[in-house]
Amino acid sequence: MRRSGVREAQRLSGIPVVLFPRSKSAPEGVPTAQLLNALRDLRVDFVLLAGYLKLIPGELVQAYPRSILNIHPSLLPAFGGKGYYGLKVHKAVIASGARYSGPTVHFVDEQFDTGRTLAQRVVPVLADDTPEQLAARVLHEEHHVYVDAVAALCEDRIVWREDGVPLIRTQTNPDAYA
Question: What is its EC number (predicted)?
């Protein structure tokens, strides 16, 4: 979303927005302490990432355990990690001969795309798919699965098994899992 779009969404919703513009003086991004202070000042509960390609600092991950979500356009752990983003993911999926792909919503840890998986949607890889066609179908599912996962997070419907695996309780039956 363009900065003007962020500001317009903020104005309409009343949700506070803090922008940390990129600059030549800070090529590595915002200092972690400054970011943590802004998040604490705003009493942020969750951090939601989409299309963010940098590694999240360990201090931020530790300050927000089980509270940072990201989405990736493959069925992790396949085709994830540093360098796997955008069409590169879909080209690799097709080149591998995989029959299925799809988005993964996962909790963020201190590595690229290795946090616990919260939700996935399966998208078939068609015999004549181009990376662009596959990307479009995966993106369609990304929009749905991320909204569902964020709703579960906000509604406190995520249950953690003893082995650290997160499960999403359904909205209608608290004893059933999605």
Answer: 2.1.2.2
